[in-house]
From TrEMBL:
Pfam families on file: Glyco_transf_8 (PF01501)
Pathway noted in the entry: Glycan metabolism; pectin biosynthesis
Enzyme Commission numbers on file: 2.4.1.-
Signal peptide: 1-27
Top-level EC class as recorded in UniProt: transferase
Family, similarity comment: Belongs to the glycosyltransferase 8 family.
UniProt keyword annotations, A-Z: Glycosyltransferase, Signal, Transferase
Molecular function terms, GO-annotated: glycosyltransferase activity
Protein name according to UniProt: Hexosyltransferase
GO cellular component: Golgi apparatus
InterPro entries noted in UniProt: Glyco_trans_8, Glycosyltrans_8_dom-fam, Nucleotide-diphossugar_trans
Length: 362
């Protein structure tokens, strides 16, 4: 079994040094200069004896039915530092790191992203699938947060079409992860979530006490047909879920053509504004109340907080398997700025960015 990374006391001193280094590095956040970011090579991780044979490392892997878990993520230059840390966290905490296959979706700088992943993770079995952003651009109406309007943010709705089917439907099931997550538990456990009913397409932690009112506009709620959405069909309790961590059954997704259902809501949104926030509301409209529940430990979300007021979030009560810095602030930006939130130090050990201050991994 790989050892769980617990922060020894000496680590805290190193972290302090790191924080100071980040501040000194004064990273320039321009998009093009981000392409000059260089990343360290991640350590190699090995399967435990109980795992199947390792997948062959490849930067152009075809879907392997031998993979124990297929992970889908988007890649872009701006969030690459987060993605690299997320990948490292998956590998570090699973019993079978050589049986995890990654499926990345990217819409620009594909060669740079490919080369960067290949050099930091030379033992990874992965492939990058190019995503044509103009495919969804026509559906996107401006949301209140510009970052959520990036076409790549919508790629999670197209995994059924982007990922291969290789004739035998491989991959049948994927775990979709956002770029601002860190796993501290074995992804095999998450991937093994049961989707009990034959029409259950996805699983995610859900929050049935959440009030959905604020996610949709008054014109949505005042329209009798639209507001019926959450009470139609089998007793549908409109539970909130976050789309940053999802287990998706691609066969069932394809069978029900859920991409088209999501696009229908996006088309309606263009004609009459029914929600404010990017790609999440159409997912809620199609799936809320119809998903398999995953333990809340698998998406401790909201840790990004709000970087304007300097608001830091705390963990939700209960155990933690996955930390998610959703929200405006990102841990790497706050670490660079020398103003980290307390939980941001949990992200730092997974950072692969090469900084001018050489930091040796112990
Ligand atoms: C990377 O940095 C070099 C030198 O600082 C510069 O000439 C080049 O334009 C930069 N490349 C990008 C993509 O920003
Ligand atoms: C990524 O790099 C590998 C190896 O150089 C290459 O075979 C593959 O086609 C590249 N992927 C993309 C999407 O360009
Ligand atoms: C949900 O929030 C709205 C305001 O956003 C409030 O008017 C409404 O009473 C709340 N509903 C419940 C069930 O708490
Ligand atoms: C805060 O957010 C703004 C806008 O998203 C961004 O430009 C800025 O770099 C962020 N600052 C920090 C310290 O994260």
């Amino acid at each position: 079994m790989p050892t769980m990374a617990s922060p020894p006391a000496s680590c805290l001193a190193q972290l302090l040094v790191l924080v100071i280094c980040f501040a000194a590095a004064a990273a320039d956040n321009e998009d093009s200069s981000l392409k000059n970011q260089t990343f360290r090579e991640a350590p190699q991780f090995y399967n435990s004896p109980s795992c199947p044979a390792a997948l062959r490392p490849s930067a152009a892997a075809s879907c392997s039915p031998d993979a124990l878990v297929h992970v889908a993520m988007t890649l872009d230059v701006v969030y690459l530092r987060g993605s690299m840390a997320a990948i490292l966290s998956v590998l570090r905490h699973t019993a079978c790191p050589q049986s995890v296959q990654f499926h990345f979706v990217a819409s620009s700088a594909v060669d740079y992203l490919n080369a960067t992943i290949a050099s930091s993770f030379p033992y990874l079995s992965y492939r990058i699938y190019p995503f044509d952003g103009s495919r969804v651009a026509g559906f996107i109406s401006t949301s209140i947060r510009a970052a959520l309007d990036s076409p790549l943010n919508y790629a999670r709705s197209y995994l059924d079409r982007l990922l291969p089917t290789d004739g035998d439907g491989c991959p049948r099931r994927v775990v979709y992860l956002d770029s601002d997550v860190i796993l501290v538990d074995d992804i095999l456990t998450l991937a093994a979530t049961r989707l009990p009913e034959t029409d259950t397409v996805l699983a995610a932690p859900e929050y049935c006490n959440a009030n959905l009112t604020a996610y949709f506009t008054p014109s949505f709620w005042s329209n009798p047909v639209l507001s019926m959405t959450f009470s139609q069909g089998r007793h549908r309790q409109p539970c909130y879920f976050n789309t940053g961590v999802m287990v998706i059954d691609l066969d069932r997704w394809r069978a029900g053509d859920y991409t088209e259902r999501i696009e229908e809501w996006m088309e309606l949104q263009k004609r009459m504004r029914i929600y404010e926030l990017g790609s999440l509301p159409p997912f809620l409209l199609v799936f809320a109340g119809r998903i398999a529940a995953v333990d809340h430990r698998w998406n401790q979300h909201g840790l990004g907080g709000d970087n304007y007021s300097g608001l830091c979030r705390e963990l939700h009560p209960g155990p933690v398997s996955l930390l998610h810095w959703s929200g405006k602030g990102k841990p790497w930006a706050r670490l660079d700025a020398g103003r980290p939130c307390p939980l941001d130090v949990l992200w730092a050990p997974y950072d692969l960015l090469q900084t001018p201050c050489a930091f040796e991994d112990s």
